[in-house]
From TrEMBL:
Domain of life: Bacteria
Protein name (database record): tRNA (guanine-N(1)-)-methyltransferase
Keywords annotated in UniProt: Cytoplasm, Methyltransferase, S-adenosyl-L-methionine, Transferase, tRNA processing
Listed GO MF terms: tRNA (guanine(37)-N1)-methyltransferase activity
EC number: 2.1.1.228
One Pfam family it belongs to: tRNA_m1G_MT
Domain tRNA methyltransferase TRMD/TRM10-type intervals: 5-225
Subcellular location(s) of the protein: Cytoplasm
Assembly description: Homodimer.
Source species: Methylorubrum podarium
Family: Belongs to the RNA methyltransferase TrmD family.
């Protein structure tokens, strides 16, 4: 069965968007994964299909209603749907490559995209939504975050990356940032490819890459090295 992404959003026309191109687009066409954007407003209230209201206790902005979002979730995913229910949220646990890999190995995901000031807390509790953040910054809506999460998962699905099959050497997979890459021409604007990469000594190349990975990680992301020997 294909990996299934169901996205609850006020802007279903944003999907597949960039995911309709390149590797993810080809895989979507081939049926390796499927995408179902669902319009939350279909469950909106009254003539105007209203989905939000002012925050209890006052303050700026609007809040997505729990009854509307609850109905949208129930219509999109029956209780026996085994897929995790994720709410894109800057308050969530930050998304990691390990979590992406676990999601890609499962049946898919149900992604809820917030807008405005966020969603009524009660629907998060009642529908057991897991809040997921894509980083420590605030987006205007969850759609781009959902696209990011789906892209990261889809490229790991069997057959999507072709000869880069496992992606095991990439940044984060080994706990480190990836080493630098080079390709032709050998010299460009006075800069040459490091000699070791041109020498054909595979052990020496592996050592050089490991050393560069460590140096980059130490300089940019020392948090990734916590607990590791220098
Ligand atoms: N008032 C909220 C807060 O401070 O936590 C921010 C709401 S934000 C303007 C609107 C929506 O964008 C959120 O409900 C969420 O779905 C999405 N969003 C914003 N930043 C995000 C992030 N870093 N990761 C995932 N989703 C995000």
């Amino acid at each position: 069965a294909p990996w299934r992404a169901t996205v609850l959003t006020l802007y279903p026309e944003m999907f597949p968007g960039p995911l309709g191109h390149s590797l993810s687009g080809d895989a979507l066409t081939r049926g390796t994964w499927s995408l179902e954007p669902r319009q939350i407003r279909e469950h909106g209230l009254g003539r105007h299909r209203s989905v939000d209201d002012t925050p209890a206790g006052g303050g700026a902005g609007m809040v997505l209603r729990c009854d509307v979002l609850g109905a949208a979730i129930d219509a999109a995913a029956p209780p026996d749907d085994a897929r995790p229910r994720l709410l894109m949220s800057p308050r969530g646990r930050p998304l990691t490559q390990a979590r992406v890999r676990a999601l890609a190995e499962g049946p898919g995901a149900i992604l809820v995209c917030g807008r405005f000031e966020g969603v009524d807390e009660r629907v998060i509790e009642a529908r057991a939504l897991e809040e997921v953040s894509i980083g420590d910054y605030v987006l205007s809506g969850g759609e781009i975050a959902a696209l990011v999460l789906i892209d990261a998962c889809v490229r790991l699905l069997p057959g999507v990356m072709g000869k880069h099959a496992s992606g095991v050497e990439e940044s984060f997979e080994g706990g480190l940032l990836e080493y630098p890459h080079y390709t032709r021409p050998r010299e460009w604007e006075g800069r040459t490819i490091p000699d070791v990469l041109m020498g054909g000594n595979h052990a020496a190349i592996a050592r050089w890459r490991a050393e560069r990975s460590h140096a980059l990680t130490r300089a940019r992301r020392p948090d990734l090295l916590d607990g590791e020997e220098p």
